């Protein structure tokens, strides 16, 4: 069976609850918001959507609660063409949520994991065939690290390339970063990883997202930078997830690292011109049009 163009995402599924404000509140302060929106999110689900919009065949493995949020989120993934047989509904558990404050093009986020905390190594192993049959496995750190490691072990055993997005950052087991084919921190996460003893052994795997400065990837012992695009920034939520999902889709389709990183960088730039994580993610046609224009 051909693996080409198949992306498997093991990760979080959340409902995002976003409020706009003129400025960020100070500690202990209450201010009035200027608008509220509820939208699908979670790093795993976001990256799955970004990959699917690039034309990849996407499998999602994760968990939601037995509630209205969970039903809405699974339905939304299916509407994007994502296979959800690997998404478990956990009775008596709330679906994960992310509360987001948006102000001046910036954001602050608080995540309540809910059912995401019940994504266990055992659950992941029941989906072994989905991981083994993929072109690329895409991982983040919003589910228990033991489950992430279990997914990486399966991928390694079946020679499936692994993209590890170390976000939100936590201490990562050495065996996990060693198993990863590509590691995609942002600048803050990269600084945290530099404190780890394994950092010198993984520098050749790094693909760094740098916000307004674009992106960089390791090539022949040095970091090659791809500049950012000048766009009208409305909301940075989901830019990193867009980058990772598009990167996975492009690599699954057989693109080289330089080309895949360039496309992912452009897609992330496009995503910040709209409000909302998944709502801002471009389709393949929109990305190609943008690249042609630029």
Verbal overview:
About 35% of the residues lie in helices and about 25% in strands. Strand 11 (about 205-210) and strand 12 form a beta hairpin. The protein is built from eleven helices and 13 strands. The model has no long low-confidence stretch (mean pLDDT about 95). The protein has one domain: 3-Layer(aba) Sandwich (UDP-N-acetylmuramoyl-L-alanine:D-glutamate ligase), CATH 3.40.1190.20. The strands form three sheets. A six-stranded parallel β-sheet has the order 5-4-1-8-9-10, with helices on both faces. Strands 3-2-6-7 form a four-stranded mixed β-sheet. The chain has about 290 residues and is an alpha/beta fold. Helix 1 crosses helix 9. It has helices at about 45-55, 70-80, 120-125, 130, 145-155, 175-180, 185-195, 200, 240-250, 255-270, 285-294; strands spanning about 5-10, 15-20, 35-40, 55-65, 85-90, 95-105, 105-110, 135-140, 160-165, 180-185, 205-210, 215-220, 220-225. The protein is globular and about 50 Å long. It starts with 5 loop residues before the first strand and ends with a helix.
